[in-house]
Amino acid sequence: MIRGVLRKRGASAVDRSVFSFGDLLGESLAGMLQRPARSALTALGTVLGVGTFVAILGLTATASSQIDARFNSLSATEVSVEDKASEQNEFAAPAFPPDADERVERLNGVRSAGVYWPVRPATDVTVRSAPVGRADDGGRTQVVAASPGVLGAAEPTLSQGRIYDDLMSDEGAYVAVIGSGVASRLGITTLETRPAVFVGDQPFTVTGIIENTERKADLLLSVVVPRTTAEKIWGPPAGGSATMLVSTELGAAQQVARLAPTALRPDHPEYLKALPPPDPRLLRSGVSGDLSQLFLLLAGICLVIGAVGIANTTLVSVLERTGEIGLRRALGARARHITLQFLAESGVLGAVGGLIGTSLGVVTVVGVALARDWTPVVHPATAAAAPAIGLVTGVLAGLYPAWRASRIQPAEALRR
């Protein structure tokens, strides 16, 4: 009993080593500043990871805002009306009346409206730029009958010429507007010579070449002729093949879709089916969600790469400082003191890398937005959380090297 008491008294006579917070910061800073180049390279992994994280999230938010504007200006202002007369009555004539454009354009909120249908599938004709010659190039060309309102609703950009107007359409003029793809394939480079395209044996004078469109991009690969001319040559559209394209003011698409069938056919509104644009909120959220998930995955990969770099460099530092660690242990440093020191070093490197990476990420988002004439969007939560993410990444990366350092025995270390 007495021996046991003496042992306890002897043990209590030895003070345990104390490692204060100030000592921890001092030793950690000294360890990092001892090899500044290595510390900078170690922090570089976190800089790249966090910078990529902030840049990707910022660019995603910025791109999402541009998607919002695009949906609002185009998708939310487009209505399609389909001919369903043949499904309701097999003996019914085409549902669109001759004055369909004027009827719909009288609705509030409508900018332009027009009826179109493909005439190529109904008539086995070829398209050429000369009355004779090979028809291989023209075999892939689609011929579309369209009222002038279709070209107005499609909002085309012309590289040359003009689109045909209501007067040409009412007179049944033999004119055509062709897409840039068709013009290139047929070898039409200028309208100064008044070129013509031949649909079968029928010539059409080219009045314009479409370079781009906001809607109905297939017009770039089509020959577009007036609706009245197409009916005179090939007859009315086949059952269910005609469609009306309507462009509306922002916010009017849903109302126009409800009223269009009745305005066109008050006697049989069921012969027509209006397709309003999808809800832009659901469409935006779906696209934005997909972009965010993809880019978050890429940002996570970058952070993992940065963490692996910190872990590798810290582990090498532990192996190089084995003698120093052994000396500290021999002088009374406990295992948890060594663990805390290396965790502090890796955590500080991660936090510093997170701060620098956040700054670089924000600068990248602003630079890209200015270059593309966009409005930069960076959520404050992202900028605030990024340095903390760097700190956590550094601490997690230093767990294994710190544990290895704490396992080094003083006697073994000093023998090396």
Your description of this structure?
The chain has 416 residues and is α+β, with helices and mostly antiparallel strands. The chain folds into two domains: 22-70 and 282-415, no CATH class; 93-267, no CATH class. The protein contains 16 helices and eleven strands. It has helices at 2-12, 21-34, 36-73, 85-88, 100-105, 148-154, 166-171, 180-186, 227-234, 253-264, 280-320, 322-330, 335-371, 380-397, 399-406, 410-415; strands at 78-83, 110-118, 127-128, 142-146, 156-161, 175-179, 196-199, 202-213, 222-226, 243-248, 272-275. Strands 1, 2, 3, 4, 5, 6, 7, 8, 9, 10 and 11 form an eleven-stranded mixed sheet that branches. A hairpin with a 2-residue loop joins strand 7 (196-199) and strand 8. The protein is elongated, with a radius of gyration of 37 Å. The two termini are 42 Å apart.
Proportion in helices: 55-70%
Give the DSSP E fraction (strand runs of 2 or more residues): 15-25%
Distance between the termini: 42 Å
Structural class estimated from helices and strands: alpha+beta
Low-confidence segments, given as residue ranges, are 1-14
Number of helices: 16
Global mean pLDDT: 79
The largest β sheet comes out as:
11 strands, mixed
